Amino acid sequence: MAQILIVDDEERIRTILRLMLMSAGHQVHEAENGKVALELLETQSVDLVVSDMRMDQMGGIQLLAAIREQELGCPLIFITAFATLESAVEALRLGAADYLVKPFEEKDVLLAIERALGVRRILAENIRLRQQVSASQSEIYGVFISPPMQKVAELAEKVAASSATVLLTGQSGSGKEVVARYIHQCSPRTKERFVALNCAAMAPSLLEAELFGHEKGAFTGADKMRVGKFEFATEGTLFLDEIGELPLEAQAKLLRAIQEKSVQRVGGNREIPINCRLICATNRDLTEQVRQGLFREDLYYRLAVFPIELPPLSHRREDIAPLVRHCVAKHGERPPDGDLLTPAALRLLQNHPWPGNVRELFNAVERAMIMKGGGGPFSSDDFPHLHRTETGLQPVDVDKLFTLPATGIDYEELQRSIVSQALDLTQGNQSAAARLLGVSRARFRTLLSLLGEVVPLQGRQIVLRVRRKLT
Q1: Disulfide check for 47: which of 2, 55, 295, 376 has CB 3.0–4.6 Å away?
Q2: Calpha distance 182→384 (Å, rounded)
Q3: Do the Cβ atoms of 348 and 386 come closer than 8 Å?
C-alpha cells in the first residue's frame, strides 16, 4: 500500500484514478493543480505523484521541477491527453518516472505505478546518501574545531582535488574513516561510490576474492560471478581500513593492482581495468612493520604518497564538547540550546586520557544517555566510570606515603583528615573532592554521613563536626 497524490484539473479523471488506485489498496490524495499539490506536500508525505501536464496556475513540468529541487523523494508519473514525442522525451529528460496517454488502461496505470514505487526506493536512498555525505562535511567543520583537526581538514581538501593515494594514520577510534569520507566528498568523484573494506575483518582466504572478485566456480561455494571492491568502486573511492593487517600474499597482488591499474578476478584470466581513488588507514606503525619484514616496502611507498596523521583525542580536547553534542544528535535526541555539559562534567571528560579516542567518548555518552533517559544536560555524575581517571590518579606506594606507628592510630580521625583535605583543595566541591580520592560521589557522601557534616568557616577553612561514632 502506498500514499499516492493525483494532480489533475479534471475532477472526472481524478475520480477514475482514485477508484482505480483505492481498489488496488493504495491511499489517495487529490489536488486540482501543481500549486495546490505543493501546498499539500508541505504537510503530507507521499510515495508517488500522478499528474497531468497542462493545468492552470502550475503545470506538471513545473511541479516536477519543484519536487526535485526540494528533494521530496517521490517520483512522478505524467498522464496527458496532449501526447507528442517531444513532450514525452522532455518529461523523461526532466526525471519523470513514466509517461502515459489518455485514455489509459487500468493495467497500464497499475504497472507504471508498480515500477515507479521501485524508483522511489532508489530516490530515497540517493537522498539519504547525499545527506550522509553532507553530514560528513559538517562533521569536519562543526565537530572537529581544534587546530590539529583543522589542519587535517586543510590537508584533506588539498589532496582531494588530485587522485593521489592517501594513507591515514592514527590511533584506533580517532576518526580515520570520517576523514576518508570527507576527502571523497571534496573530490571530483563525490557523485560516485565510496566503498569501504576492513582488511582485519576478512579471513585471509576470502580477502583476495573480496578485493578483486571471483569467477563462477573459482572455489567451493562460488556459484556465480562476483565483482570485487576495486571494480565496484570504479570512478569512486575505495577505502581500505586496517591495511597493516593485509597478508603478504595479498600485499603483492594489491601492489600489482595499483601499478597496473587493473585486476584479475580469482579463477579468471581477463585483465579488468580499474579507476578508483585509493585511501588506506592503519593504527599500526607501517615503517616498523617494513623493518620487521611484515609489510612490503614497495607497497608502503605506493600507499604513502600523501600521508595524513590524525592526532589522538587527548591532544585535541577542544573537540570534546562539540563531539558530545554531535553524538547526542546522532542518536535522535535534540540537544538543549544551552550548555550540554556542566563545567564539572566538561572538566571530567577533558581530563580523561581517552585511549579509545572518539569511539570511546561516544560509548561513554551513549551509556550516559541510557542511564539518564535522555540527551542531557550531563553532569559529572553521569560518567561515574570516568571518575577514577579524571585527575590522572596514579598507583600510590602506600608504605612510602604512610607508616603505621607501633602505638596505632585513630582511623576515624585519619579518614576525617583526608576528607577535610580533599574538601579544602576543592573549595568544598564534593564531586571534585570525591574524584581526588578516587571514589564515587555516592561513596563520598557516605563518608561524610559517617564522619560528620561540613561547616565552612572563614575563607576556605573547612572543618567536620562529628555526628556519630563509627562502629
Answers
A1: 2
A2: 34
A3: yes
* Total count of domains within the chain: 4
Are 304 and 329 in the same domain?
no
Q: Which residue has 593492482 as its cell numbers?
A: 257
**Which three three-digit cell numbers place residue 368?**
550516559
In whole angstroms, give the CA distance from residue 72 to residue 64. 10
Q: Which of 372, 350, 361, 344 is nearest to 435 (CA)?
A: 344
Per-residue pLDDT tens digits for 148-158: 999 999 999 99
Domain-terminating residue out of 331, 362, 390: 390
Distance CA 381, CA 368 (A): 9
CB 337 within 8 A of CB 318: no
Reported as type and span, the H/E element at residue 206 is helix 204-212
Within 10 angstroms of residue 460's Cβ, the number of other Cβ atoms is: 12
Report, as an integer, the average pLDDT of 11-36.
91
Tell me which residue range forms the domain holding 351.
Answer: 314-390
CATH number at residue 45: 3.40.50.2300
Q: Is residue 148 part of a domain?
A: no
- pLDDT value of residue 304: 94
Task: Say what angle helices 430-437 and 343-351 make with each other, to 10 degrees.
Answer: 20
Percent over 70 (pLDDT), the chain: 87
pLDDT score of 461: 40
Query: Across-strand partners of 308?
Result: 168
99 within 8 A of 88, measured Cβ to Cβ: yes
In this structure, which long-range contacts are made by residues 266-272, counting pairs with CB atoms below 8 Å and at least 24 apart in sequence? 266/208, 266/209, 266/212, 266/213, 266/214, 266/215, 266/218, 266/219, 266/222, 267/214, 267/215, 267/216, 267/217, 267/218, 267/219, 267/222, 268/214, 268/215, 268/218, 272/213, 272/231
| Residues 427-445: b if buried by 16+ CB within 10 A, e if exposed | eeebbbbbbbbebbbeebe
Cα distance between residue 13 and residue 6, in whole Å: 9
| Domain endpoint, select from 390, 411, 432 | 390
User: pLDDT digit string (tens) for 39-64?
Assistant: 888 888 888 999 998 888 898 888 98
